[in-house]
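Wed. Picked up where I left off yesterday with Elongation factor 1 alpha-like protein. The coffee machine is broken again, so keeping this brief.
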Amino acid sequence: MIVPSAAAKTTKAKTDSAQAKGQNPTVKGKSKPGTPKPKSEGSQTPPNAASKASGLAQDLSMLGLEEDRVKRDDSPVPAMSMKQAELIEKIQKEEASQEKKGVSLVVVGHVDAGKSTLMGRMLYELGELSEKEKIANERGSQKVGKSSFAMAWGLDALGDERDRGVTIDIATSHFDTANRAFTLLDAPGHQDFIPNMISGASQADLALLVVDASPGEFEAGFDRGGQTREHALLVRALGVRELIVGVNKMDVVDWSQDRFEDIQDSMRPFLQAAGFAPEKTTFVPVAAMAGVNLANGDNARLRAWYTGPTLVDVLDKVEVPARPLELPLRYPISNVFKGQSAVSAGVGVSGRLCSGVVQVGERLRVVPGDETAVVRTIERDEETVPYASAGQNVNLYLAGIDPIHLSIGSVLCPLSDLVPLATRFTAQILVFDIAFPLIAGVPLELFHHSNNVPATLSKLISVISKGTTGSKQNPRVLQKGVHAEVEISLRAPTQSTSTRAPVIPLEPAHVNKEMGRILLRRGGETVAAGVVTSISA
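Structure written out below (tokens, as returned):
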């Protein structure tokens, strides 16, 4: 069953009110995934399965709708225009000749570090937020006593977000630099919304980690229990290899070079241990509220000691990952919604293609389940397109399926190459900085893309040595910092009347890297991350 979220209901009420009063404009090109829009929108070589210690080290530790229920749509649907091989060849040629390469960027960091303000200001600097919208946001935020959140309102469109001054859901926007076309995912920083942050980070190629340079604030975010440290580990575990650290609120510390360098010195060893190579980690001093060193670095106090690039300059030169176009289509659903225009009629889903290609007219299978659907429309960056490919964040509008058969965490795939379903599997994991060791039988929460299900650490198979001494078989406990091979079993939710364990669609990492990454959490804390090596049942 698809039920409208409280946020979705709030959005509608706020939107109706805003339309009546002429307030609360939204940013051009911005949407909440799953929120209907009035107009149409837009790898790596798989690791060897036998490479246990090195594979994990390199990948980790180097590391709304029930009331608007859509009826089944049996009207005619378009036919596919190209064969799969022809489409892949066409996309490869287009990508080779593209002037601007597409990149998905997730913005993460400790609560109140200024993530939404920074990105709202940058959208304004780049012309994606108009002067009229900026002024309206300033007036609207002043009326509710939150004038300092005016720029953040460019991204925080939900009523609850504006009322509370924190990001709750993943906000999606689009902006271009000279050489890159970005899909921007603004993730919540508050610990209560870590699942939403994981969903956003799983769709990203690149991460911008925003830290607060204010006295005591950086330390609060970076010390144990702060979200700076956990967010960095999470984005690396989810496959992000390039990181930009935006050291924000430098104006608060009077553009102190010592403060900037102290933050760098504190973070670099941790980030390198987490798996971010030094050459793929860039620190940029900024002041989001004042708009300094975002697109324009013209500030005498900063330029007295900083000769590096602006944030936009760094973004413009980021590496674009290789896309696994030739692997079978894997499209994890991150949201389900109802299309409300002639072009985007029917049930819609949002997400990112992990691999493969998809085109209008193609019939796909929804896993888990036996239902199929035909792709009626594809939207990317607010435009209707005939096809989409790996690495792109798109909305798909489907025909021939009831929305009751679609849910967050389901995967769309070809009828001829289904995603395996698992209730028990083996994985190699890296245990994070946990307060208590892990033992067999401990209950956990498993995160895989937008899916999170109850699980159990059913068996400790071995601890993988970093040296040449081999592995320790059948360990009794897993301490912090160890690499281990474990068996994980899904279990029925405690509130469920059924005792049957759920199934989730996933694949070993050597088959499809993005479909093989997992995170494990317990008691509101991320305890481990890893890659699936085999499916047992």
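Quick read: The two ends are 26 Å apart (CA to CA).
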